[in-house]
Every structure is written in C-alpha cells, then in structure tokens.
Here is the input.
Amino acid sequence: MLRRAWVSLIIAVLALTMAVATASASSDEAATAATLRTLTVSGNGAASAVPDIADLELGVQTINEDPSVAIEENTSAMASVIETLIDLDIDEDDVQTRSFNMWVEQVYGPDGPTGEFLYHVINQIVVRVRDLDTTGDVLGAALAAGANNVSGITFGVEDTQALEESARDAAVDNAMAKAEQLAERLGVKVGSPRHVTEISGGFPPEPRLERAMAFDSGGASVPVSPGDFTVRVSVSIVFDIEL
Here is the structure.
C-alpha cells in the first residue's frame, strides 16, 4: 500500500514537472515570436550652412648644407609669416604649430654618393581665419612673407549643434517614412521604437584653390571658394510590429 502511494506521488511530481516545462516552453516561444515581430529601418538626414571659419595649413621649408643654418633660416622665415598674420588681425590663439621636422638628404652624383648632405627643415602651422572674406588675402600675404608650403584649406562651421539637430530630425523622419511604407506594403502597423542607433559625421566642402598661383602670388589675394559645410546623420531604428 505504501509502495503504491510512493509510485502515485512520483507520477504526480513528474506530471507537474512536465506541465511546468511545457508552459515555460510555450512562454519562451511566445516571447521569441514577439521579439521577431520587429521592423528595422535606416534613415539619413543632412543639413548645410555657409562656413564661418577656415583653417589654413601652411609652412616654411628651408634647405641648407649646414643644419644650424637651415634651422635659423626656417625660424626667421616663420617668424616673419606669423608677424604678418598678426598684422592682419589674426589672433595669436588662432595660430597653432602643426609639426616641426628635419630630415637629411644624401646628395648623389653620376657616380653615386658625393659625401655631401642637405638638411631639410619643415615647420607647419594651422591658421584659423574667422573672417572668410579675408581668407585669400591672408593666404597671399603669408606666402609673400615666406611661407612656401600649403597643405590645404578646410572650411567649417564653428558651432555645429543647430546643424546636427536639423540633420537628426531629418534622419528620424526619413526612417519613420520608410517604416510606414514597408508596414503598409506588408499589411501591418508600426508600433513603438524598440532600439535606436545614431551615427553622425561632418563633411567639410572641398575648397577650390588655384595652387598654381600660390607660390607666385607676390602678396596678392589667392582665389578660394568655401562652398557649403554639411553635417550628415544616419540612424537605425527597430520598431515593433502590430498585426
């Protein structure tokens, strides 16, 4: 009798365990199904504005057989360039050293190395111009003062917050429009957003600089064109789907 009771109890426990496991599995399947009922779309937005700053990267390169002379000549020329920039109302805080390098060139003749060496000294600075109407004048004056190396010009917007907000709004609108279009085509409704990822990036314009004139400007204004500065934002949004 006691043995039968134990057997009945074991059967009851097993049945309860199986019932719980089945219920749990059904719950997991439902959760998985709910999780899979999502729609992922990407959206892109952009906002542009006229640049209000320009960064000029320019420098002085000197070459001499004597390294001390090469450095002295470079220092003197760069001092003249910076003095000219200050005279053009460029703030000292807007002139920053980018790099200073010296390297040695071994001189070769028809029969190989001559035993002579040339020392190259290159001092590069970045100059921020806040009055874009003077950009060409600043560049021309710097070249006339001794700068003989121009690496490039970058135009930008100093405060990009408003552009970023506009681009972000446009990206979200674009993503939502895509989601609504897909949902309508599939016969479902767009629910609440489940996950959002944002990727932002500024893309400065390519400046148009007549480099052929740069080193023969004689102090004349060098023609440049700032173009537009554009901020782009991309978002990826996962929406729930309502059947």
About this structure: The first strand starts at residue 38 and ends at 49. Residues 59 and 124 are 4 Å apart (CA to CA). The chain has two domains: 37-52+159-243, 53-156. DSSP finds five helices and nine strands in the chain.
